[in-house]
Amino acid sequence: MKINHTLLFALLLLSATSVFANNYTITFPNFAYIPDSLNVNVGDVITWTGSFSFHPLESTSIPAGAVAFSSSTGTTYAYTITTPGTYRYHCAIHDFKGVLIASDPSAIKEAVSSARLTVYPNPANDQVSIGMDENMLGSNLSITDLTGREVLHSTVQVSNPQIDIRNLSPGVYFVTVENEKGRMTRKLVKE
Predict the structure, then answer these.
(1) How many CB atoms lie within 10 A of CB 57?
(2) In the 8-state DSSP scheme, what is residue 109?
(3) How many CB atoms lie within 10 A of CB 43?
(4) Which residues contact 150 (CB under 8 A, 6 or more apart)?
(5) How far apart are CA 103 and CA 111, in angstroms?
(6) Distance CA 71, CA 43 (A)
(7) Nearest CA to 111 among 174, 184, 185, 161?
């Protein structure tokens, strides 16, 4: 059976975003959400655990474009964050409250948006060059696989480092350069 490599690559790339999502659990054993405030990212999954028949969950305000949530039965409810912004919720009977503050990890901070990050050649076999501005010197450089496992880590010492990737298995990787000003990520295909 012939496999359509383009379709397989697209499916792997689409699934990569959910690989990096975090899962958070919020409980409400009495009359309070624990924790009652969380900083989360788009793609993260929030699971409330408790008795919704005694403490019905209800969103009270959500960002534009997000879907409202509520549950009045069962003992677990999961919600995936889809939009950056503030999500407020409460127990519809006892009015104890909680808040989720969601960020978009794919958004590049303004301080870094004008910076350059290129990975070439791409696809590559043995070595890649990482092109970047000199203001990125001292940044952390990492390469991760699709599962989020870091396969290489170093500190940027020169503005266009050469990285040996001979020991990497063929596949899709992510090259990330990060410093106090922000983070930039580019895809790398190892043949």
Answers:
(1) 21
(2) P
(3) 18
(4) 142, 143, 144
(5) 17
(6) 20
(7) 184
Q: What is the pLDDT of residues 176-190, one digit of tens each?
A: 888 877 778 888 999
Q: Global pTM?
A: 0.50
Q: What is the mean pLDDT of each run of 10 residues along the chain (191 residues)?
A: 45 42 89 91 91 95 92 94 92 94 66 68 91 82 84 86 92 86 84 92
Instruction: List the one residue out of 90, 92, 73, 89 whose CA is nearest residue 81.
Output: 89
Tell me the two tokens of residue 28: 């409400």
| Structural domains of the chain in order of their starting residue, each with its CATH number | 21-103 (2.60.40.420), 110-190 (2.60.40.1930)
Q: What amino acid is encoded at 79 in this protein?
A: Y
CA angle 89, 56, 64 (to 5 degrees): 30
| Dihedral sign from CA coordinates of 104, 149, 164, 157 | positive
- Cβ 43 vs Cβ 107: under 8 Å: no
